Amino acid sequence: MSSAIVPVYARADVAFERGEGCWLTATTGERYLDFGAGIAVNALGHAHPRLVAALTEQAGKLWHTSNLFQIPDGERLARRLADATFADLVFFTNSGAEANEAAIKMARRRHAIDGHPEKYRILTFEGAFHGRTLATIAAGGQAKYIEGFGPKVDGFDQIPATDIAAVEAAIGPGTGAILIEPIQGEGGVRTIPASFLRGLRALCDARGLLLIYDEVQTGVGRTGKLFAYEHSGAAPDIMTIAKGIGGGFPMGACLATADAARGLTVGVHGSTFGGNPLAMAVGNAVLDEVLADGFVARVARLGSFARQRLAELKDRHPDVIAEVRGEGLMIGLKLKLSPQDFAAAARRRHLLTIPAGDNVVRIVPPLIITEEEFAEGVRRLDEACADLEASPAPVKKGAYA
User: Fold this and answer.
1) What confidence tens digit (pLDDT) does each residue in 119-133 have?
2) Is residue 358 a contact partner of residue 127, using CB atoms and an 8 Å limit?
């Protein structure tokens, strides 16, 4: 019988029925080591006891009330996120795309209430990915996501990343904000230099613009800091998060200073499901783990170990791997062959990876992974590289570089 699901996913021919830690078990009984974490979502791995307990306890009490009423766990989670970051206020959503929509509306509204509704345009960067809604595909600017969906939503101007002069030249009378990922995830794990982020901060301060960071993929400990902006010291006015904060439960958030958010007053924006009791219980449980002493520092140390092991893998297979890039446990392997072919070869060795843009495959395991588990993953990657080198269609040096 054919599938009744809209065919927008190129799914691998494997299904999983359970998971534990960094391991998944397929419906066939085969075990896979997870270096993808559900696209950098399962920060604490699979079936983490604290998350299971939090969700189970809350499920037995209350699932949903809507935002017409107080949600105490949401108040607690918002306060904890604010206290741990630059932010004063938090708006909860169901996804990263919704968090970015909230950030876009927040920035536009802030200028509008100040008497400048014309300052609705946002500078974004080539190679960016901000979600799949009509506004966020326009913000990302990639033709493959925009084509066929009618006129592109107005208000976004793409420019090259890391060129501060180009940014300054692109600022016009209608520019109100700058939106950037500290590390481009879907774009190929491309790290934005700290000096460039500091330059953006200075430009925004000088020109009265709002600086927005999309930390949907980089946040919640993924890069060896609680949030990636901490590497640069250049705090934003608005920041979006999702993925890791739910540990696998769908949730996101838009964090902001009180000044940036002052245009969002009662009735201006909202969400039926955002901040529901189930999500808030899980989000607080995730923070219990991630904010524990030593957790994020351990991710940083393990990230250094991981990149060293992967650099050694590159040296052994220079015709397959061109470059190792990234920060913490957000790592990209720039390849000399198709990332889809590479991911398939790794999967045949029972290892899961995530293809990305710029001919990169992402290595984004759960943050709880051990050195021994990571070393086992590298061993499987080594075997996958050897398989590709020995394949009937041999790796061609430089073919995809």
Assistant:
1) 999 999 999 999 999
2) yes
